[in-house]
Amino acid sequence: MKRWLRQHRYALAIAVRRLLAQPFSSLSNLLAIALALSVPIVGTAILLAAQPVAREVSVSPEITLFMKRDAPTDAVNDINSKLRNEFSDDVVDTRIVTRQQAYKTLQRNPNWADALSVLPENPLPDSIVVTLAESANLASRADTLVKTWREWSSVDLVQHDSAWVQRLEALLRFVRIGLGLLALGVALVVLATVFNTVRMQALAQREEIAVARLVGATESFVRRPFLYLGALIGLLASLVAIGLSALALSPLNAALAQLARSYGSQLALQLPNGASLALATLAVVILGAISALWSVNRNTRF
Questions:
Q1: How far is CA 44 from CA 7, 179, 261, 281, in A?
Q2: pLDDT exceeds 70 at position 208
Q3: Which is nearest to 136 in space by CA: 263, 51, 251?
Q4: How far apart are CA 196 and CA 265, in angstroms?
Q5: What is the helix, strand, coil percentage profile of the chain, to 5?
Q6: Angle between the N-to-C axes of helices 2-21 and 219-262, in degrees from 0 to 180, rounded to the nearest 10
Q7: What is the per-residue pLDDT across 91-137, written as a single tens digit (0 to 9) for each?
Q8: What are the C-alpha distances in Å from 112 to residues 50, 101, 118, 119, 125?
Q9: Each residue of 56-96: pLDDT tens digit?
Q10: Which of 6, 23, 173, 184 has its CA 20 to 30 A from that of 229?
Q11: Is 125 exposed, middle or buried (0-12, 13-18, 19+ CB in 10 A)?
Q12: What distance in Å separates the CA atoms of residue 54 and residue 162, rounded to the nearest whole number?
């Protein structure tokens, strides 16, 4: 066990020494990977901030049922009771708006007052405003309810603009897919950068590796420092990326706070939680080690 630990400690020391031996090149590689990593981190922060806003926007979608003009006087009350009893899982609240209430509301609007004054009678129907319960598939569920309620004999029109819900869901889905593709692109950047770094190190240490093999060094002993070098690059780049992302969120939050105040709201971007960042860092470290293993296997065959 002590021998195993001593070998790994030696490999880590060699990796650190090789990383410090070329500071400009190492710093350039670290910054390249860190900048690539910071983009999905900031994107994830924006997505996490947008999701609560989306839930608040879509928390109380409404559907309006307009009654037929010749419907019985008690039809609106019957349908209101039917909505509350038979659709209790989908409906949070219902509100009856009589034709007289709607007419008085329009009369108070100066844009409609003149037009209504020339009409011989109230042209507005009774209506029921239905507030739907929030659900994961809100848009599709709302469309199903609209189709069902349109079939009722006393209902003349069911008004529901589900396009905004669908657009919102599509936008968030697009952002998630975009972040996934971006993360894949970042993984390729990590692989390519670490591969090239280890390749240059292997070529620079060509004679040292040849001598080590002549005196009986095993392949694992020769390649282990390069694996630590790849993992170390991934770790340091991840830490730098988190720091750059935190710095980038500061001016973004200042601009966002001003925009949110104009809408009477509060919104702030925050980094993903520590567990998510730790998991992402571990993934980058593993990618770095894999890339280093691939590179050293290809470039130390001499």
A1: 39, 7, 23, 15
A2: no
A3: 51
A4: 48
A5: 70, 10, 20
A6: 60
A7: 888 888 888 888 888 778 777 777 767 777 777 888 988 888 776 67
A8: 37, 14, 11, 11, 16
A9: 554 456 788 898 888 887 888 888 898 888 888 888 888 88
A10: 184
A11: buried
A12: 14
Going by DSSP bridges, is the β-strand pair 155-159/127-132 parallel, antiparallel, or unpaired? unpaired
Structure tokens at 179: 């972040």
| 302 in Cβ contact with 219 (< 8 Å) | no
Q: How far apart are the C-alpha atoms of 100 and 108, rounded to whole Å?
A: 13
Place of tokens 């011989």: 120
Place of tokens 């350039």: 28
Q: Taking the domain 62-161, which CATH number applies?
A: 3.30.70.3040
**What CA–CA distance (Å, rounded) separates 178 from 168?**
15
Task: Show the tokens assigned to 77.
Answer: 């009350």
Structural domain spans, the chain? 2-56+169-299, 62-161
Q: Exposed e or buried b for every residue in 89-123, given b needs 16+ CB within 10 A?
A: ebbeebeebebeebbeeeeeeeeeeeeeeeeeeee
